[in-house]
């Protein structure tokens, strides 16, 4: 009897405890029996014919998902005949009844004769349609009168992993790499498949498995076998593998004397290497390259330019269906220059010189994944070169896996910015999706936030950033709110009040973080090296543009980087319409103010406060808002799994403490320049600047 009780208890416990591993693909039994029955009536069988691996995956995912949600076994049959009440999967090139065409990976879900049809022009389209149908159920939408056509707006939707051979992840905060290189190719961790499922469910169709600071090893036969083993697992989920390239590989791996991209031997080496890659990975996606950036070698080492390097690789890929994504993240150590301008200066003159298989991959902003950046001036300035948007999901500058920052609003803010490249409405999104300049190929990349932690992303809420990236790469017109809402319902709870509370909290989280770390557009003042915590006082570093005083320029007059004509004139890289918005302190939106202006502490702002008072107010209200976040989270306790609840609550408590750390560090440090009191009703920090400074050393273990 006692044993039975324990067994029962264990069962109940394991049925409820949730370690976050299943992400948004939980498929727990729907609680409402009536709703369950309605769904079950429409899902009595799944019909699919043929043995295409992706279609088999699609049917299997649908079966597993439905069985979990409605609690009934659902057979997969090959031919529906005249049966009704089921779901029919098919590849179909027939035009849709509503006239909307499907592109290669698009899908259409419709209801006819009491069946649900999921059609795609390709097998991958069917797979995406399956996940879309499951999402309908998970978010408790009706499924009997569906007429959904959806096409991805961007073609290459990729995760970029900054994962190293030794299992570490550059800027990774969720454990070590998912890829166990030492076990591959023989042993396949079951997690590889779950990784592919998660990606396919949000429309991601490619993954760059190694760090852009690339090891030459990935160009060896031994490693290609390992990569091929991963590719085999990912293939049935419609996911292709890509590799980051170490540019001098022809020398280090190939034993050549040079890696000069115009050298015939080097070109032949790459052509052979590509041939070898395709012999083991027939659907290999292509290369990602970081060159002549932060010490990584590149074509400039041989007096050549980025186009020479990229075009050489593109030519090697010419016989195959692969592309080159060449990164524009470059900047030189010039004390008089402005790092903001570097990428534009190097790449803009090369527009029109790239091979048609080359895409240039541009970070969302000109500096480096700060909590807020103006859109990168290259967007809109390269009409003849497809530009890939690079977002960072891992929270390098956004509080690692400790601070809650839902990034969709950040992504959307960039995507919706107007470049005015072809007049009003020339948004960054339209540049990226190709519609503005007629790009033939298009892409969006997200630097992954995944790792070996059981819940994949360290902070449970970080899963939402992975999810949001995939959804937006598919359709950038989705709102941050819709995406948050979906994710919460699929991952945390369907209880309407809790869904609303959590969605709200997520939507405000980025602004809260910006307030207590980088208000009014101040940027790059975080802890040196690790990029965690505040260190605005940093004025010694190997390069001038790694010093934080370089960015904030605080002095007795004011604070901020003058990037107008009286300063670095980085503004001149934008169209006149954009310049106009940002060029005066009066017109520049406050969130971007210190990005473009050196503003006097005493300057009266639109808010009615002086700059100093506004600056301090933001730090204080930002830090206070974390308390609000904690209170909001406390309210959803009854609706959320206890393990997840505690995990998030614990991280919020750390965040709260660290928000005050940021606040104290920044107001005390900048007060030395402003020489003004902390405005009422705020109380001056209880500690001294010296005390706060010591905290950074502790965190950085210096
Ligand atoms: O954000 C910075 C990081 C580097 C990174 C680099 C890049 C992979 O601090 O760690 O290197 O950007 O994007 O290349």
Automatic annotation (TrEMBL):
EC nos: 3.2.1.131
A GO term, aspect molecular function: hydrolase activity
Domain Glycosyl hydrolase family 67 catalytic intervals: 137-456
Protein name as it appears in the record: Xylan alpha-1,2-glucuronidase
Family, per entry: Belongs to the glycosyl hydrolase 67 family.
Signal peptide span: 1-17
Taxonomic path: Bacteria, Pseudomonadati, Bacteroidota, Cytophagia, Cytophagales
UniProt domain Glycosyl hydrolase family 67 C-terminal: residue ranges: 457-680
UniProt key word GTP-binding: no
Domain of life of the organism encoding this protein: Bacteria
Quaternary structure and interacting proteins, as annotated: Homodimer.
Keywords: Carbohydrate metabolism, Glycosidase, Hydrolase, Polysaccharide degradation, Signal, Xylan degradation
Organism this protein belongs to: Nibrella viscosa
Domain Alpha glucuronidase N-terminal span(s) in chain numbering: 23-133
Pfam families on file: Glyco_hydro_67C, Glyco_hydro_67M, Glyco_hydro_67N
Top enzyme category: hydrolase
